[in-house]
Structure formats: C-alpha cells, structure tokens
Design the sequence.
C-alpha cells in the first residue's frame, strides 16, 4: 500500500527519511492525505480531509491542533515528548545564568559606552557594581512539572550545586526512574513557591495551568526570586510578574514569549521562542513523530498520542489486523466480538485500552475481514473509526 502524507511545515529531512518513498508520497500540497505532519502551523484554521487517519506534531505542545475535534473523529494526534528536552534544558540553564549574573543588562550597558579605551575602562569600573549577581550553588530551584524537560532541568541544576524541589502530582513511573533521588518533593505548588529562589515551569497549557504562577503564588516567593518560563506564555501571569518586579520582590523574569508588557522591561529577558530551536531538536522531533505515524498507519499501534491510549501489540503471523477507535463505553469489545463471531471470524489476539472518554482496540483475526464485516463494526454506536490493515 502507498500512503499519502501532507506536511504543513518544513519537516526535517532526517525525519522524512523514516518514511520510505516506495510506500509514502509526501508533499505540502497533496490530495486526500492519510496523515498530516505539522510543527507550528495553525490547524484550527484549515479543513482537515475525511481521508486523514493521523496527525503528527514534530514537537511537544499541541495547542495549534484541534485535538478535541480530531478525537471525535477517532483520529490520534501524536507528538514527540522528550525529543527536544535537551535543547529546552540548555536554554533554561542559560536563562538561569543570564538572570543570576545580570548578563543582558550588563551587555546593554557596555554597548552604550563611548570615548577612547581609557574612558571606557573608567566607565566600566564605575558602572560594574550595578550588575553584581549571585552564584547558583546552595540556591534552590523549584521545578514545576517533571516530564521529559523538567526531569532534565532538575538533574542538571543538581549538577550545578543547586538544591532542587520538584512538584508534579502526575509524575509517571518512567520519569521517576530518570529523576535523581536528590530532588526533594514539594508538598504543593505553594510549598514550592515559598521555598524556591528560582522557579522553572514545564507543564502544558490548559484550563488548569493558565496563570499557574499568579499574584498570590508569586507573593510566597523569597525576595529576589527568578522566574523561568520556556513552556507556554499564559502559564505565568505577565501582569503579576511585572508588578512583583516593580515592587522589588522579584529579581528577574526570563521567558520565551515576548509581549508588549514584557519586552522592554529592564528586569525581563524575552527570547523569540527558541526553546526547541536547534538543528538537533528539530531532527529528533521529526524522526520520533515520523516513526510513530508510520507504525500507526502500517500496524495500527499508538505510541505518544495526546488523545488516545498507548496501544502496542505485536502482529500475530498469518492474521488480519483490525483497529478501532471508539467512545469509552461499556460492552464495546463484546459488540465487536459478536460481529466477528457472526461472520465466522476467530480472534487470534486482542488488545483494548482506554483513556478518559476514548478507547482503542487492536484485533488480529484468523483469515480475512470482508468490507461488510468492517462496515458492521463501524456502524456500532460509539465507534469513531475502524479500518483493516
């Protein structure tokens, strides 16, 4: 079978190489694609063809993708968590050092110097006291969100001699294994804010995390604190941060999200969304998402979907595979099995997983599955999509 893939952004060639040309046709302008690969393009503004079976985001955040709409159509949305973690970690550390040593204000000062070299030397000696900073060992970094990036940031901060507090009520077993045992667990977000000299946020943006760092929580921080935000702009309340800076309670805010209230403030450093902007990160994200989309199209497996459960089942030899996305309601597997039994089809292997409102089923059957049988399964109330591989 030959699959058609539409790209809405430039996707790293290294990633596209994982989709062999003998089986995949890839273009920005392609009719009836079975999958879409995207980076930052706003998919809320485009019509998504009925032919689409999967969407792959070469990055972590999916705010530019209509996930809810696609979920209702049984379309998994894949992302690439952790593929850009090192790039973001390095930028967070750079931001921490920039804030601690007042590097950007100091650089701006030197660019205003005039006169001959002797006059510049004299001005430097007179002015450098304005930029006295602090060292990191012994200071406490609070890391909010211990996913792929948060874990790397926490472990790197320990290596710099910092104390680290972590807060993530949804910490996974996988990430816990990767996290240094020296990271101390904060009892709550308020507990973390009260004990941290600097805070770095690494959570997705949703209704629960918007303005997560607000006026109330910022007031809990020690005087002279630093806020680092390389996750999403709205996780931090810009107005509350500026007020805290102006009141002398915060020392600096370093983020990846310029705005009119932030970009010209003397204690704020805003960068142009550089978090994952390295060649290595772009390649890693593209490779990861291309492999996930390929495995889904060819084998029906789901790995790193933001809206459907991870579902991976080895192919049983000499079988036909059916994959079904459905609403997470009782007796769905029973109804599917009944349709297969009525057609005299035996199930060789089966996997059913659920996640919130949605579920996903992989079935390997002995022998072929006719179109009318697939149609009968697709007609079950609550089935969102069904296909034979």
Sequence:
């Amino acid at each position: 079978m030959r699959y058609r893939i539409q790209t809405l952004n430039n996707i790293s060639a290294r990633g596209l190489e994982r989709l062999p040309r003998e089986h995949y046709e890839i273009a920005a302008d392609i009719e009836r694609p079975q999958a879409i690969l995207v980076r930052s393009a706003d998919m809320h503004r485009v019509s998504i063809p009925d032919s689409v079976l999967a969407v792959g985001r070469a990055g972590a955040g999916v705010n530019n993708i209509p996930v809810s709409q696609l979920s209702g159509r049984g379309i998994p949305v894949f992302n690439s968590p952790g593929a850009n973690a090192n790039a973001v970690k390095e930028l967070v550390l750079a931001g921490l050092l920039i804030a601690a040593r007042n590097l950007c204000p100091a650089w701006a000062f030197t660019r205003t110097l005039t006169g001959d070299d002797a006059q510049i030397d004299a001005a430097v000696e007179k002015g450098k006291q304005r930029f006295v900073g602090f060292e990191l060992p012994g200071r406490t970094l609070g890391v909010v969100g211990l996913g792929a990036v948060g874990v790397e940031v926490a472990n790197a901060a320990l290596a710099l001699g910092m104390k680290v507090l972590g807060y993530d009520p949804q910490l996974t077993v996988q990430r816990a294994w990767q996290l240094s045992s020296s990271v101390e667990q904060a009892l709550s977000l308020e507990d973390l804010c009260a004990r941290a000299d600097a805070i770095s946020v690494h959570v997705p943006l949703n209704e629960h995390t918007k303005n997560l760092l607000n006026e109330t929580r910022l007031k809990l921080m020690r005087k002279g604190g630093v806020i680092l935000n390389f996750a999403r702009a709205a996780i931090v309340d810009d107005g509350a941060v500026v007020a805290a800076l102006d009141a002398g309670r915060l020392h600096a805010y370093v983020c990846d999200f310029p705005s009119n209230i932030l970009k010209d403030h003397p204690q704020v450093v805003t960068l142009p969304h550089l978090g994952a902007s390295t060649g290595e990160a772009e390649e890693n994200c593209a490779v990861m998402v291309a492999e996930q989309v390929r495995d889904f199209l060819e084998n029906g497996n789901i790995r790193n979907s933001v809206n459907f459960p991870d579902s991976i089942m080895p192919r049983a030899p000499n079988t036909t595979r059916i994959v079904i996305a459905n609403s997470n309601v009782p007796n769905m597997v029973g109804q599917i099995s009944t349709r297969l039994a009525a057609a005299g089809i035996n199930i060789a292997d089966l996997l059913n997983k659920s996640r919130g409102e949605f579920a996903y089923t992989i079935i390997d059957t002995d022998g072929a599955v006719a179109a009318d049988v697939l149609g009968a399964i697709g007609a079950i109330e609550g089935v969102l999509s069904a296909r034979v591989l």
